[in-house]
Predict the 3D structure of the following.
Amino acid sequence: MNKKISILLIPLILVMAYGGVHSQTHISIWGFSLSKNDIKQLIVSIENEEGSSQYLITNQKEVSRIGKLLSKSEQYSEVNSFSLDEQPEKYTQILIQMHDNTTYGGDLWVMGMNYVQNSNGYYWKVDYEKLSALLNEAIPAGEKVQ
């Protein structure tokens, strides 16, 4: 009887251990499971009175904080179900770049009272106020690239 129980418990324990390790080392953003260690930087596009510009945010603490907020984004609708033409006043695009230069993310849009981001074929509802606050803290230390 004990042998049967151990045969059943060993795979269960292995699956649980893998799940625990995976949840500590990966983050789910826009339907992608991204390794936290592989995230290199954020690329943020800004529109203001002076025109448009892009910044690289490479500080890993800031990247992690923003990534954690983006991981809380909720899938809102498929991209082809709406046409949007109004972007937020300041931040217009956020991209996550990995160490292998794979890039995830997309443009930010205003949809009624909601702010959404298009990525992976869907619009994702974003807490734009919190995102703006985090970006306002991170941008001054970021590198302007355009």
About this structure: The helical segments are 2-25, 60-70, 128-138. Strands lie at 26-29, 32-35, 39-48, 51-57, 74-78, 91-98, 103-111, 114-119, 122-126, 143-144. The first strand starts at residue 26 and ends at 29. The CA atoms of residues 80 and 121 lie 8 Å apart.
